[in-house]
Amino acid sequence: MSASRWNGFSTTGLRVKCVCFRGTAFVLSGVYAVLIYLGRVFMKHRQKLDLRRPLMLWSLSLAIFSVMGAMRTGWYMFSVLNTHGFRQSVCDTAFYSAPVSKFWACAFALSKAPELGDTLFIVLRKQRLIFLHWYHHITVLLYSWYSYKDHVAGGGWFMTINYTVHAFMYSYYSARAAGVRVPKPFAMLITAMQIAQMLAGLSVLGLVYRWKHHTHCVSTMNNIVCGSAMYLSYLLLFSAFFYKSYLKPTDETRAKRE
Predict the structure, then answer these.
(1) For the residues of 12-44, what is the DSSP string, one character each?
(2) What are phi and psi of 180, to 5 degrees?
(3) Which pTM value belongs to this model?
(4) Could you say which of 136, 213, 214, 216 is catalytic?
(5) 166 in active site
(6) What count of Cα atoms within 13 Å lies in the side-chain half-sphere of residue 76?
(7) Packing angle between helix 101-111 and helix 131-150, nearest 10 degrees?
(8) Which is the most buried residue in 57, 126, 190, 249, by most CB within 10 A?
(9) Are the beta carbons of 174 and 59 closer than 8 angstroms?
């Protein structure tokens, strides 16, 4: 069996599909923003919907997908680290074309479109929609699709870490939707992992910039600048969310202290 075909899938065909619609990322983002607005207007004077079971199935499917992606891409990154060292793992671009990992790189880019569906549950259940949520979804979609098209260095780290964090995050969402009482420290751990992910992303981009002129560390200044701005904004927003959600004293806490 050739490297471009495995498990009955033509990964070459998948790569073509991933590349061809890069320009639609902005269109999808615009449609997403409009649908959020219209959805909130539609639900304004209506009762919130009980979507616990669909939400559980949705989150569980994304959790399983993320676990599989983390395992497959993680094994690839471990192999590169073990055989070629850390620098090559950062500058590696074979991740996008190697057997198995090429499928999961493509699947990662594609998955950022259906993940926009997370917001649908928030709108229809009339939950609080924070800026961090929709801003994160839009910018991840744009950056992921453009980075995939350019096959930039560092992509293996970005995708593997994101798959891993999402494996925990969507598993947590699945449990919550199923009515399981998840201890608060687990929620704190997930947010802490997201903060660590942003620090890792900034670090990888910094190393790509440092090694950019190396023959095998391919990227563009646009990607490095946009990626750094994105990860820095995430770092600030997730840190603020962590403080407000878990550290900031509540009125009840202040009353007890007084």
Answers:
(1) HHHHHHHHHTGGGHHHHHHHHHHHHHHHHHHHT
(2) -75, 135
(3) 0.88
(4) 136
(5) no
(6) 26
(7) 140
(8) 190
(9) yes
Stated length of the chain: 258
pLDDT tens per residue across span 120-168: 999 999 999 999 999 999 999 999 999 998 999 999 999 999 999 999 9
Sequence-ordered list of residues with C-beta below 8 angstroms from that of 17, at least 6 positions apart, any chain:
106
Residue type, 62: L
- Residue that has been written with the tokens 């599989």 in this structure: 68
Report the distance separating Cα 13 and Cα 32, nearest Å: 27
Euclidean distance between CA atoms 75 and 153, whole angstroms: 18
Q: Which token pair is 4?
A: 């471009």
Instruction: Enter the tokens of residue 115.
Output: 């993940």
d(C-alpha 152, C-alpha 86), whole Å: 16
**69: enclosing H helix or E strand:** helix 52-84
Per DSSP, the residues of 2-13 read: -TTEETTEEHHH
Radius of gyration, CA atoms only, the chain: 20
